[in-house]
Amino acid sequence: xxxxxxxxxxxxxxxxxxxxxxxxxxxxxxxxxxxxxxxxxxxxxxxxxxxxxxxxxxxxxxxxxxxxxxxxxxxxxxxxxxxxxxxxxxxxxxxxxxxxxxxxxxxxxxxxxxxxxxxxxxxxxxxxxxxxxxxxxxxxxxxxxxxxxxxxxxxxxxxxxxxxxxxxxxxxxxxxxxxxxxxxxxxxxxxxxxxxxxxxxxxxxxxxxxxxxxxxxxxxxxxxxxxxxxxxxxxxxxxxxxxxxxxxxxxxxxxxxxxxxxxxxxxxxxxxxxxxxxxxxxxxxxxxxxxxxxxxxxxxxxxxxxxxxxxxxxxxxxxxxxxxxxxxxxxxxxxxxxxxxxxxxxxxxxxxxxxxxxxxxxxxxxxxxxxxxxxxxxxxxxxxxxxxxxxxxxxxxxxxxxxxxxxxxxxxxxxxxxxxxxxxxxxxxxxxxxxxxxxxxxxxxxxxxxxxxxxxx
Length: 457
What we know:
The protein is an alpha/beta fold. It has helices spanning 13-17, 19-26, 30-38, 42-47, 79-99, 119-131, 161-167, 187-196, 275-283, 335-339, 388-399, 431-447; strands at 64-68, 107-111, 136-140, 177-181, 202-206, 213-214, 225-229, 236-240, 246-250, 256-260, 267-271, 294-301, 318-325, 346-353, 377-381, 405-409, 453-456. Helix content is 27%, strand content 20%.
């Protein structure tokens, strides 16, 4: 939804200093060079000022201000260290905003562990963004390992006239996309933005303790993408969105979901603590899935499950299973979803393992199961060869005669509270686990038909 900026490595110093490159760059107009600089993270954009005299002030005219400081958040677990990093981050943002000279901006993005103790700074940044007629605004204040030092940041109440005038000196009519992550915001404030942002197409709200329900009083005519993630506080979602293309709801328990006039829906993501709850939530909107092409499910598997009634998914092309597990239970409960999707082309499995992997006997599917004639690609991220993943892969190999490739990625992510994931940058655990994963790959390879490509990342 909210694209991240590019890496500064494209501005390799040797590349820039080459005669051919300098001549080519010198022929480019300033606006194009400013556009290139705008797509870099702020710190990298500032570095471009040393490339040449002409580039000195380009970063001050950036249309995209991307302040992503999340890389440092897992370097320490000391509260004093986090307070110091917060001061550094806020100082950097404030200095850049003071020097920024462009009249309008396309995107303003804050990604760092901040809370209510930083309210004054965050309020100034919001003022700045709206005064610059921002189109895409993201506040991602997700916490680090240390946890909250204060209560979660509370978004200003837009129903309060004084607060509204303070934050929105020029209104918010230009806003196209709004993303609030680990920010406490009320339904009334969200409805204010919906009512006063005629161009709003994307809305994402994650983990607001103040959002008890999301039931806007008027149709969301332009909204194309909506995502709500709740720690259990949001109990009801009821919307009328004729142009909605993508809807996501991540929670814990069953919630009341009522989607009206969503005939354009092609992408659905649903998460809950157990797969049976996920399917209960999906079945509430089964009448809205006639055009669905992509379905993503996020859940946990720690037992054996039998899924309830599965709606017809006759246009589904891609199914993503994002599963937390320690290896017990079985993923074969999801085969009923494959059976309901005769045109399914791609199955992607993302495994988030707990510390201990449990091995058990692999269930080998019997001959004569339903054949998935359109399924061509199986992708497994976090493959461990720990029976639960190999079992589903064997099922696909056995029942998908059109299978063209299996893509295996050993890299894994570790589950955290509420499905928020720490980045898994190392390969699978230790040498023993890696050996088990390689053994699982060899077993799968021995079962493949001729012509099926096995790709290891």
